[in-house]
Design goal:
Elements lengths: L17 H16 L5 H8 L3 H4 L1 H24 L1 H21 L3 H10 L4 H14 L2 H33 L2 H21 L11 H5 L2 H5 L2 H31 L4 H7 L1 H21 L1 H24 L5 H6 L1 H22 L4 H26 L7 H28 L2
Helix pairs in contact: 1-7, 1-8, 1-9, 4-5, 4-6, 4-7, 4-18, 5-6, 5-7, 5-9, 7-8, 7-18, 8-14, 8-17, 12-17, 12-18, 12-19, 14-15, 14-17, 15-17, 15-19, 17-18
Length: 404
């Protein structure tokens, strides 16, 4: 299918409006970060250490990555609509659980259950690929993820304000309200887009080796994983650099953290505007080169002694910009290798990005020690960015030589 099918808003017999997909993906992103400013208050509420409370982030990401491997195949078998509706209902129930949890153990259990909302992100991309061809899919995914880019900027600020006004539970009340609203919107607007499948799971799994043996699929996955690894490495290491190296206050550090999000918003806008005419592979290549150029320049400036918080955080605009071009286009590429397994490809690719990114964040934390400065983090990010360039160059060369 190369032409976008007609969509009629709030008509379950037609494909969804793009705004519905934006809101679905945004719910997944909001659930990841809105409560972060409340972690100290939550630790006090449950009478536990801050380190234990931080498990609400790492455990959520771990379950998030694992679920992405399951959600895609299930949605390929049963369809996007029923899986999305079921996932949002489970998210709503899990959010209720976090609000009434009497102990931190119960809270963390329901927090892990909240990770089912990742279906909204995975399947919003798969729905796009169901509707249109590869190049236009990259453009639409760019617009979908451009909406998501606003959430990392707004979510923590909203959560912090809610915490001061009403307490930490207010963030989870907002998630509950958003979950109910998006459930109703999905019910009313999202018609089924997946091709009808009559095969059993056993027959479906028999097709997976064709996807796993596709070298272009792995090339796109690795390009996206290494590019997003630069951002996750920033998340893992920048708080240390900002507070310990540059002595920034928490409020000022929060402002500087918007730098990659601003770049990501612009990069997604460029993907939405130019992917159709320029092509997926070239957009990914340009994005990886922008990220690598930004990190390489930052390394040179630091080696020359030009070390300041403004220079350090300012150059992460290029990481966000590059990611905004790489991720939607690489996602469209990996979904197009075997279009009939788009849900599976979206889940596997997303799991690689989240899992690889979590590893980069952990590595950044391990590399940065008192007195180390920002150098180890910058060196790691230069290497990660170069790896993303190598991955997309492999894809391009393979297409040129054998066309597959």
């Amino acid at each position: 299918m190369t032409d976008r099918p007609e969509t009629r808003f709030l008509d379950r017999a037609s494909p969804p409006h793009i705004m519905t997909l934006v809101l679905l993906a945004s719910l997944s992103a909001l659930s990841m970060n809105i409560f972060l400013p409340s972690l100290p208050a939550m630790a006090r509420h449950f009478g536990t250490d801050y380190a234990i409370m931080q498990l609400s982030v790492s455990l959520f990401l771990a379950v998030n990555a694992a679920l992405q491997l399951v959600i895609g195949p299930v949605a390929d078998r049963f369809g996007r609509r029923p899986v999305l509706l079921a996932a949002i209902v489970l998210f709503i129930l899990a959010t209720l659980g976090t609000l009434i949890a009497p102990t931190v153990e119960v809270f963390l259990f329901f927090r892990m259950c909240q990770a089912v909302v990742v279906a909204a992100m995975v399947l919003s991309r798969a729905v796009v690929r169901d509707m249109v061809g590869e190049a236009e899919a990259a453009s639409m995914i760019g617009y979908v993820t451009m909406g998501m880019a606003l959430v990392p900027m707004v979510g923590p600020m909203l959560g912090g304000a809610l915490d001061e006004l009403f307490g930490w539970q207010a963030s989870f009340v907002v998630l509950l309200i958003c979950g109910v609203a998006i459930l109703l919107l999905t019910w009313a607007d999202l018609g089924e887009t997946a091709p009808m499948r009559s095969s059993s799971f056993r027959a479906q799994f028999a097709e997976y080796p064709a996807l796993l043996r596709a070298r272009r699929f792995w090339g796109y996955c690795l390009a996206a994983a290494f590019a997003s690894g630069s951002f996750f490495g920033f998340l893992g290491g920048a708080p240390f650099v900002g507070s310990e190296v540059f002595g920034l206050s928490p409020s000022l550090l929060g402002i500087y953290f918007a730098a990659p999000a601003v770049g990501y918003l612009v990069g997604n806008g460029l993907s939405g505007r130019y992917s159709t005419r320029i092509g997926v592979d070239r957009m990914v290549l340009v994005g990886t080169l922008i990220t690598t150029g930004g990190m390489g320049t930052l390394a040179v400036l630091f080696a020359a002694g030009l070390q300041s918080a403004e220079i350090f955080f300012g150059f992460f605009v290029f990481v966000g910009l590059g990611n905004g071009m790489v991720i939607p286009n690489a996602t469209a590429g990996m979904l197009s290798v075997r279009p009939h397994l788009a849900g599976t490809a979206s889940g596997l690719g997303g799991a690689m990005m989240i899992g690889g990114g979590a590893a980069m964040a952990a590595l950044a934390g391990a590399l940065l020690q008192p007195g180390s400065g920002a150098g180890p983090l910058i060196a790691m990010l230069v290497a990660t960015s170069l790896a993303s360039v190598a991955a997309i160059l492999y894809v391009i060369r393979r297409k040129q030589t054998i066309g597959a």
